[in-house]
Amino acid sequence: MNTETTRGKLYGVGLGPGDPSLMTVRAVEVIAAADVVAYHSARHGRSIARRIAEKHLRADHIEEPLVYPVTTETTDHPGGYRGALDDFYEQAAARLAAHLDAGRTVAVLAEGDPLFYGSYQHMHKRLAHRYDTEVIPGVTSVSAAAARLGEPLVEAEEVLTILPGTLPEEELAARLASTDSAVVMKLGRTFGKVRGALERAGRLEEARYVERATMEGERTGRLADVDPESVPYFSVAVLPSRVAPLTGGPAPEPAPAGRGEVVVVGTGPAGPLWLTPETRGALAAADDLVGYTTYVDRVPHRPGQRRHGSDNRVESERAEFALELARRGRRVAVVSGGDPGVFAMATAVLEAASQDAYEDIPVRVLPGVTAANAAAARAGAPLGHDYATLSLSDRLKPWEVIAERLAAAAAADLVLALYNPGSRSRTWQVGKARELLLEHRTPDTPVVLGRDIGGPEESVRVVRLGDLDPAEVDMRTLLIVGSSQTRWTRRRGGAEQIVWTPRRYPEGG
Q1: What secondary structure letter does DSSP report for 325?
Q2: Which H helix or E strand runs over 306?
Q3: Which backbone phi and psi does 209 adopt, to 5 degrees?
Q4: What Rg value do the Cα atoms of the chain yield, rounded?
Q5: Which segments within 137-239 are labelled E, that is strand?
Q6: Cα–Cα distance for residue pair 306/283, rounded to 1 Å
Q7: Quick one: which H or E segment has residue 378?
Q8: 462-505 tens-digit pLDDT
Q9: CA–CA dist 162, 502 (Å, integer)
Q10: Contact, 211 vs 235, CB < 8 A?
Q11: CB atoms < 10 A from the CB of 303, how many?
């Protein structure tokens, strides 16, 4: 035993997932040299951590079982479950501190890795700033589960998400839908909720189940086949890598098995930050991406996924091409900028899908952040009251219709979000629109010019309607024209322009 009067050293010792042979050499060395070996256990006194390390314990080791006062959230503690645990951790830390103050070396055993969902970290947070401390990493249950399944977790640019099963089901579903690979920890009583989240995310068929990885009683298989009543706490759900395994030749064409579908996906106004979890998941799950090349290029490349970019003026052809792919059993994501239902691809796909030839092809539309909402958020809140959305493009409707609608919306004192205001071949529409609007709005009416919102050339400016210069407007610009109630001011010493439309409208206005 250490007889020095100096303070002892604290070790957090990772033991790995359960098989004693997976302990690291360093973990064995630290346990062998320690004066005190501490481990957590339930009230029955049995400790998985102690069992893993048992053959390395000496007869003269001082053992400190740290026995949890509760194992469920039912307790009469005045602070509830959390209060009971906080008190326990404080008391356990004080017991270990007494050994450290006496000059003893303390090894706190932890299944898996000490700082990965482990109980040791509660001791670490209370003691590491006071004593010399070393953490010995261990093989996590995540790595063990993948190894026992024999399936890669992540490859290339794939993203792995690790989730506690205690999260709300909706949160689990959103995160599972948006990631490539995932591991859900802490199953047991949460299993039904986790299974429901996987189903809602459309990932249940991919999910694998691992129970007690590397330990006695290990079980693996398809998660969908598992009886919820049989699931212990020491089990995980795994969504392995989506990258197809090597087959010695080119990847085979999917067999038509009724799984072909078309999902029209709104990617928002720019890159990945604007994707919703649902759209991110749909893009990752697709066999084929179809869309305007500029939008398809925003989507990260995935091994085995086919990309079909085309010009922006062939919407009908794109829609039919996507439906044909789906009819052959492919999962197709039609990529659209902004929201696919706002001057975008959803209409073209649904119009084509209404033909008899495609009536059996499932079609879903997933919303995205619209350009109007994105530009409005950058400027403040100009769409805070009633507003109208119009396209100034006369490629698919006559200018006379556009002019009538502009005049009607302006006369109704609606804020206006104007899409497709101009291009290289359409240079006069903005000037005509300004003339029409000035018949109903004052020249001081604020106009937001949002260009390339979310992109590398983003700019947001606010000008008076009377000063709106058509030469400064192109197809990447969205205009928001205020109503009579829209306000425009500067904050932070004039450095920041903000625009908002009050939610209250004057009575009699």
Answers
A1: H
A2: strand 306-310
A3: -120, 135
A4: 31
A5: 160-164, 181-185, 208-211, 219-222, 235-239
A6: 11
A7: helix 371-379
A8: 999 999 999 899 888 999 999 999 999 988 776 788 999 999 98
A9: 43
A10: yes
A11: 13
Task: Tell me the C-alpha to C-alpha distance, in Å, between residue 70 and each of 75, 81, 284, 412, 450.
Answer: 7, 8, 42, 64, 56
Alpha-carbon span 506 to 509, nearest angstrom: 5
- What is the band of 85 on the pLDDT scale with cuts at 50, 70, 90? confident
Cα separations in angstroms, 117 against 137, 179, 228, 413: 13, 20, 23, 56
Whole-angstrom CA distances from 187 to 177, 190, 194 are 19, 5, 8
Report CA-CA distances (Å) from 372 to 247, 386, 420, 484: 47, 13, 11, 19
Identify the residue whose tokens are 């200018």: 399
Residue with tokens 């994501």: 333
Tokens of 411: 């006369």
| Token code pair at residue 339 | 């929201």
pLDDT in tens, 11-61: 999 999 999 999 999 999 999 999 999 999 988 778 999 999 999 999 999
* CB-CB neighbours of 313 under 10 Å: 10
Residue-wise DSSP of 44-70 = T---HHHHHHGGG--TTPEEEEEE-S-
Q: Which residue has the tokens 């035993």?
A: 1
Residue partners of 354: CB distance under 8 A and separation at least 6:
none
**SS3 letters for 210-240?**
EECCCCCCCEEEEHHHCCHHHCCCCEEEEEC
Tokens 């104007």 map to which residue?
Answer: 418
Give the CA angle between residues 240, 244, 245 to the nearest 5°. Answer: 95
d(CA 43, CA 342): 60
Cβ neighbours of residue 110 closer than 8 Å, sequence gap 6 or more: 12, 13, 14, 15, 49, 118, 119, 120, 138
Cβ atoms of 340 and 367 within 8 Å: the answer is yes
CA distances from 261 to 153, 255, 361, 363, 414 (A): 26, 13, 6, 6, 39
- Sheet of 288-292: strand order equals 306-310, 288-292, 331-336, 261-266, 363-366
Contacts of 343 (CB under 8 A, 6+ apart): 391, 419, 420
Rounded CA-CA distance 385/204 in Å is 42
